[in-house]
Amino acid sequence: MGDDHCVIITGGDRPHVGAVALAQARPSLRDPSTVSATTSVLTLLGHKEDVVAHRVAQRLASALNRNVVVCCGIHVDAISPAELEFIDQAVNRFCELVIQEVQQPGASGSASSLSATPERNSID
After folding, report:
1. Which residue of 6, 71, 99, 123 sits 20 to 30 Å from the alpha carbon of 113, by its own alpha carbon?
2. Residues spanned by the domain of 99
């Protein structure tokens, strides 16, 4: 999408769209020599993906100095605390990998992919 990025994070038992975040890179209000972002989120009623969508959009837009849209929908029936932690760590690692790929010299920056699905038996 030109210099902008569109990220889709789905998974679990029923992938869907639960929240969408849009982050616009801008100079930091505290220190204009650094990049920050303004982020807006739309969340479907009853969904909790807004926190993940906001965090990823904000982090990527700030790190990459680009506009970022994140569509997020993860549903795991009877999710355990360990599974929530796994998803949180997978999303953090995904952000690190996207930033690394886009910032490395010669990277196209057009596509980044990471698939991480928790296996209930491997987490417990």
Report:
1. 123
2. 5-107
